[in-house]
């Protein structure tokens, strides 16, 4: 049998930090399985994912646990480190189900890892509520046991395209005169975002003048940015997970690339404000969630309440990856309680009928397992803070478009 090297991980009540959370009700513990990236390229967001799961387990258990029929149960999570490798994730999902007896799964971080694990959970008819696999292609396979609380990838930067169109006059143009540059990592998530942006740009008659697929481990964008300086597009869209966001912000500043609109994913998980300061100003950032949104539930309270508790617990502001991961536990709690059973099929059927409001937003699944109830939001970095600028219903301020040229900045 293959030795499970780094995979030996935590088999406690949602990690060592909260080891005591599930101990009070040994007679009824619902142990969820999770293969999460704690090492490798996704380790930053994998840690955010685990922290979200752990905090939700702790709070749910402290607030009465999960009422399943006549029983009161506690949540626990058994973790393995998937090392940011899809094949490893699939292997560990098989181990959790076949060797560890796990009957309910939480998702990994990233679309690629979720794509690797979903066929395994589907094969064994094990429900999986996932919070970090946004690729729309996940929901075209006919899976019946996969449920995603987050908005799918093609929606991530729709609001950025719409916002640019709305502000075309500030660029001295009409929407159909806007030119767009794309710099996308060649992975399922980013390529789905690319497809969504292209689709939205076509609606406005915008022209894509640069369409670069960038390698994984996105450490250098100089070739693309040199093209941007030469062709002068109105909008630059970047997607390459946390490393891609950090690389883009750093090199745009270093090369003094002037683009009226710059929009990207993973700003908060890349910590662009903390790492790059003024260089991050005016960047538009896609987000699944914001603490200022007026969502709330009975477990965490408001979105801001969750944010404050998370920061108190982990000493950093929660990125949306942590918030959506915590929401996955709320969805499971609701499904178990409505099912009144620990039978996986009954819980799966209850999940399919989810219609729930959480601090993270509304959750309602369509027949493919997508959450069709929650919109994306768009931040802009303004005065060193993330400020919601779109959609207008949630906006805290108007977006600054165009970005000031580097020569005009203090």
Main traits of this protein?
Rossmann fold, globular, single chain, 410 residues, alpha/beta
**Overall average residue pLDDT:** 92
DSSP strand (E) fraction? 15-25%
What Rg do the Cα atoms give? 21 Å
What percent of the residues sit in helical stretches (DSSP H or I)? 25-40%
* Name given to the CATH architecture of the largest domain: 3-Layer(aba) Sandwich
Poorly predicted tracts of residues: 1-26
Shape: globular
Class of secondary structure makeup? alpha/beta
Distance between the termini: 62 Å
- Helix and strand string, N-terminal first? EEHEEHEHEEHEHEHEHEHHEEEHHHEEEE
Strands, helices and their partners?
Layout: E1 11-12, E2 29-36, H1 43-62, E3 66-68, E4 71-81, H2 86-98, E5 105-106, H3 111-123, E6 128-130, E7 146-148, H4 158-166, E8 179-185, H5 188-204, E9 207-214, H6 222-231, E10 235-239, H7 241-254, E11 261-264, H8 267-270, H9 272-276, E12 284-287, E13 296-297, E14 301-302, H10 303-314, H11 320-339, H12 344-352, E15 355-358, E16 361-364, E17 377-382, E18 385-390
Parallel strand pairs: 2-4, 5-6, 6-7, 8-9, 8-10, 10-11, 11-12
Antiparallel strand pairs: 1-4, 3-4, 12-17, 13-14, 15-16, 17-18
Helix pairs in contact: 1-11, 2-3, 4-5, 11-12
